Amino acid sequence: AQSVAQPEDQVNVAEGNPLTVKCTYSVSGNPYLFWYVQYPNRGLQFLLKYITGDNLVKGSYGFEAEFNKSQTSFHLKKPSALVSDSALYFCAVRDIIPPTDSWGKLQFGAGTQVVVTP
Amino acid sequence: GAVVSQHPSRVICKSGTSVKIECRSLDFQATTMFWYRQFPKQSLMLMATSNEGSKATYEQGVEKDKFLINHASLTLSTLTVTSAHPEDSSFYICSALVKPGTEAFFGQGTRLTVV
Fold first, then answer.
1. B87: helix, coil or strand?
2. Are B32 and B103 in contact (CB under 8 A)?
3. Is B44 close to A108, i.e. CB distance below 8 A?
4. Helix, coil or strand: residue B24
5. Is the bond preceding A99 in cis, omega lying within 30 degrees of 0?
6. Mind telling me how many Å the CA of B62 is from chain A's nearest CA?
7. Is the distance from CB of B94 to CB of B5 less than 8 angstroms?
8. Interface contact flag, B103 A108, Cβ < 8 Å
9. pLDDT at A62 > cutoff 90
10. Do residues A45 and A36 touch, judged by C-beta distance below 8 A?
11. I need a labelling partner for B102 at 20 to 30 A (CA). Which of A59, B25, B28, B91 fits?
């Protein structure tokens, strides 16, 4: 079964500093990885995804993520954090269902609360 | 990106009554929709997967008679919490796949409070 782990419950960063949110994954085949952001009492907003191709994926709102196969990681990054980036961030991996490799459910990490201080 | 609209955003109901939550894909047809439940400061727990025109597939431990899911059209899925109790109070979120092989888009969520 596929799974993701977000080792940090919370990340604190000062505005203007680089932001990194960690995610490691465990899959039996090719990974299909996603990052989502959730603001209070709101649904999830898609940030970016890795399916195949370049290891550095660029997404919405200036975020990017680096896929590292050897370390089984997919860390989310932003060069300069904003106070408005304060939110809950989820890493997710998509189940792949054999034998047709059809798409199954998303497995979410526990989430990482990002707090950006002015 | 694709827009998924969820309604209502907040609902308060009395214990023993039923509540219906709607999830609509506004600018695309969603063959598959998912319903999640989220407790405070926790991750999303998948409740069920619904495909248009067929019965929903429920995750282990989710009571299908309590959480009725209907996916009658390619743009609408509904979740009905029947005979609601205070322990059903939670944040419910739906999501929809534009098509297999793409990312899922999420509704705004529904805060259900059962009193």
1. helix
2. no
3. yes
4. strand
5. yes
6. 15
7. no
8. no
9. yes
10. yes
11. B91
